[in-house]
Amino acid sequence: MRIRVRVFRPEWLDLEDLTILRAFVWSLPAAIIGAMSVFGLLMEYGVLVALPAAVLAFFAIIAVIVGGSQALALGGARAAAALVLPSGSSTPVVRDFSLEKSLVIRGRVAEAIGSLEAQLAAAPGDPELCIFAADLYAREAKEPRRAAPLFRRAREAPNVSPGQEHYATQRLIDLYLGPLDDEAAAAGELRRLIERHPGTRVASYAEGALRNLVGSESPRRPLPR
C-alpha cells in the first residue's frame, strides 16, 4: 500500500520561479528572527499564545518579502514592456527586440517569427518592425521571398527615416543579387538609388554596380523593373 502525502502550498509561492525562490530563501533569516522575537515578547502569556503567534509571524514575514519581490518583478516587466512597445504617452525609444533575439539564440526561430508576425498584424506599417522581421526571415529562417515584401513595405512607410529607407533598399539589392537571383529587380533598385540620391557617393556606387550588372557604360538606358 502506498501513502501519498500532499503538502499545501499557496499559489503565490511558486518555487519554480527563480525570482520567487530567491526571495523565499532571502526571507528565511528575517522570518526566523521575527518569529523568535514575537515568541520572546509573548512568552509571558504562555507557550500556547506565544508559539502560534511566532508561527504566524514567520509566515507573514515570508509572505511580505516574497509578495514584495513579485510586485517589483511585475513593475520591472511593465517598465520593459513600455520600452519595447511604447504607448505614445511617452517619448518613443529604439526597440531592441530582446525577446525575439533571445529566442533565435536558443534556436527557436519559429517562435521569434510568430512573435514578430503578431506585432506586424497590429502595426503593419512600422518600418523598424518590418526591417527587423525581414532580416530575420532572410538570415535566420532562410526565407528571402518573405523578406523582400517586408523591406519594400518598410521603405514605403510614411514615417520611414532616410537611414531605414536606404538600408531596406540595400538589403533588397542583396536579396535580388543573391538568393532571389533576379538581376532585373536588382537593376531597378540600383536605378532607384541613383534617382533618389543624385550626385552622392551612394549614387556613384550604384552607377558602378549598375554598369557591371547590365554590361553597359550608360546606366541611364531603359532597364527592366
CATH architectural designation of the domain at 98-181: Alpha Horseshoe
CATH fold annotation of the domain at 98-181: Serine Threonine Protein Phosphatase 5, Tetratricopeptide repeat
**Overall pLDDT score:** 78
Uncertain parts: 1-18, 73-93, 216-225
Description of the structure:
It is built from nine helices and no strands. The longest helix is centred in the first third of the chain and has 38 residues, at 47-84. It has 225 residues and is mainly alpha-helical. Among the domains are: 18-84; 98-181, Alpha Horseshoe (Serine Threonine Protein Phosphatase 5, Tetratricopeptide repeat). It starts with 17 loop residues before the first helix and ends in an 11-residue tail after the last helix. Mean pLDDT is 78; it is low at 1-18, 73-93 and 216-225. Helix content is 69%, strand content 0%.
Brief account:
69% of the residues lie in helices and 0% in strands. The chain has 225 residues and is an all-alpha fold. Among the domains are: 18-84; 98-181, Tetratricopeptide repeat domain (Serine Threonine Protein Phosphatase 5, Tetratricopeptide repeat, Alpha Horseshoe).
SSE order and pairing:
Layout (H helix, E strand, L loop, with lengths): L17 H25 L4 H38 L13 H8 L3 H14 L4 H14 L3 H12 L6 H16 L5 H14 L4 H14 L11
Helix pairs in contact: 1-2, 3-4, 4-5, 5-6, 6-7, 7-8, 8-9
Quick tags:
single chain, 225 residues, mainly alpha, Serine Threonine Protein Phosphatase 5, Tetratricopeptide repeat, 9 helices
